[in-house]
């Protein structure tokens, strides 16, 4: 078996159907296996896979174990020499999988090759970034992506690849040999920042990370996350960010990041709190912004021990209170 396709799903039945169909439409059936790990979906995803894709290996969890834990479940079942980590809201296009395999076969020092991601309208989507640093993360939020994003700039001639720090985990082919050396995904991160963490460990072990320009994958982006309330989604991402910094940058830089995030939320809470009474409650957006920043401030203060001192642990939406 050449490629084991691992897909984690949580309540994205229709997108999952399209993802699986794209695998069978654009993959060679005798060279691939598909493994779906369902994290306690309640939308009929499990039944759909059993009925429409009986050739797929289905691992149905009773609850949401997290993206990293579910990916690791899938990799433990996998027998391919490459693992394709594919989001449930992503779809392969013609030639995508074959191009990823060609690149990996041609360069044995590549640990993972990411696809060139497109939005459903055909426009380019960021496919890779520079590793997060304290200096980039202290920038205003709207500048962070600009500071860390890596533009598509093929540097490999006819190979049509470009080297990056970390690839977006929506669609990337991972060498089983690299996983055996650096380990699977870090389950102390529930989801988000897992791809940056994995690629950093690959980099430290000497494995290259690239994007294959001609391997195009359509990605809707964050379809599962859209089901979460904005504050919970934001705080879950924050806890993964703090965990990443604790693991790779140490307690002092994590404390600096926490202080910056907390002071920002405090300033916004005060500002919106002063404005809101003047509007006599008529401006709904101000009320929502006040509630959002007050929630962030309370959470960062209440969970300071988990963020700065205790061992990192996975935070899921239910933990964000």
What does this molecule look like?
The protein has 12 helices and 11 strands. With 321 residues, it is α/β, with parallel strands linked by helices. It folds into 2 domains: 3-225, Spore Coat Polysaccharide Biosynthesis Protein SpsA, Chain A (Alpha-Beta Complex); 229-319, no CATH class. The strands form 2 sheets. Strands 1, 2, 3, 4, 5, 6, 8, 10 and 11 form a 9-stranded mixed sheet that branches. Strands 7-9 form a two-stranded antiparallel sheet. The longest helix is centred in the last third of the chain and has 29 residues, at 250-278. The protein starts with a strand and ends in a 13-residue tail after the last helix. 43% of the residues are buried. The model has no long low-confidence stretch (mean pLDDT 91).
């Amino acid at each position: 078996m050449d490629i084991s396709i691992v897909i984690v799903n949580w309540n994205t039945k229709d997108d999952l159907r399209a993802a699986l169909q794209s695998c069978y439409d654009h993959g060679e059936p005798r060279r691939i296996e598909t493994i779906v790990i369902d994290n306690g979906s309640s939308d009929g995803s499990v039944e759909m896979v059993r009925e429409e894709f009986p050739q797929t290996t289905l691992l149905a969890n009773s609850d949401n174990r997290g993206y990293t834990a579910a990916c690791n479940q899938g990799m433990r079942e996998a027998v391919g020499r490459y693992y394709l980590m594919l989001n449930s809201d992503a779809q392969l296009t013609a030639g995508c999988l074959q191009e990823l395999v060609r690149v990996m076969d041609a360069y044995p020092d590549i640990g993972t090759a990411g696809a060139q991601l497109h939005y459903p309208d055909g426009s380019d989507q960021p496919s890779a970034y520079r590793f997060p640093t304290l200096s980039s993360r202290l920038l205003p939020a709207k500048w962070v992506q600009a500071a860390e994003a890596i533009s598509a700039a093929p540097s490999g001639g006819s190979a049509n690849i470009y080297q990056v720090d970390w690839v977006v985990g929506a669609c990337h082919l991972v060498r089983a040999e690299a996983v055996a050396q650096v380990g699977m995904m870090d389950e102390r991160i529930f989801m988000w920042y897992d791809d940056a963490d994995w690629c950093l460990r690959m980099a430290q072990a000497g494995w290259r990370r690239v994007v294959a320009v001609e391997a195009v994958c359509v990605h809707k982006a964050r379809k599962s996350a859209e089901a979460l309330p904005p504050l919970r989604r934001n705080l879950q991402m924050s806890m993964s960010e703090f965990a990443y910094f604790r693991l790779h940058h140490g307690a002092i830089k994590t404390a600096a990041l926490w202080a910056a995030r907390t002071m920002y939320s405090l300033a916004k809470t005060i500002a919106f709190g002063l404005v809101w009474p003047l509007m006599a409650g008529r401006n709904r957006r101000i009320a929502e912004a006040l509630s959002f920043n007050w929630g962030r401030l309370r959470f960062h203060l209440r969970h300071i021990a988990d963020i700065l001192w205790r061992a990192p642990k996975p935070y899921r939406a239910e933990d964000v209170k």
